[in-house]
Amino acid sequence: MTTRGNGSPPPGGAIVKHSLAIAGHRTSISLERAFWDRLNALAAARGMSLAALVAEIDAGRGGANVSSAIRVFVLQSALAQDSAER
């Protein structure tokens, strides 16, 4: 992880682990705080729980690990929003 000059992680860069049930199985997912924050906002905007959104991402992830699939999903959502605002 990249750190700032004082040795602390950049804002939003600290890794946070959450335990969720996906398709009936408990799993732990580690993501940077900034990704959790944005993922929670996306779930709220869609009117769904965080677990439901992660399950949706998990169902379409193919061979990628779930943490990577979530990061790509969040990035694609941000890029789509940016394009729509232009």
What key phrases describe this protein's structure?
86 residues, two-stranded antiparallel sheet, 3 helices, globular
Describe this structure as you would to a colleague:
By secondary structure, the chain is an alpha+beta fold. The chain is built from 3 helices and 2 strands; from the N terminus they run ββααα. It has helices spanning 33-45, 50-59, 66-85; strands at 15-22, 25-32. The chain has a two-stranded antiparallel ribbon. A hairpin with a 2-residue loop joins strand 1 and strand 2 (25-32). Helix 1 packs across helix 3 (66-85). The mean pLDDT is 87.
How large is the share of residues in beta strands? 15-25%
Query: Unreliable stretches, pLDDT < 50, 5 or more residues?
Result: none
Q: What's the pLDDT, averaged over the residues?
A: 87
Task: Kindly report how far apart the N and C termini lie.
Answer: 32 Å
Task: Using the alpha-carbon principal axes, give the shape.
Answer: globular
Q: Give the helix level as a range of percent.
A: 40-55%
Question: What string gives the helices and strands in order?
Answer: EEHHH
Multimeric state? single chain
How many β-strand stretches? 2
Biggest pleated-sheet summary: 2 strands, antiparallel
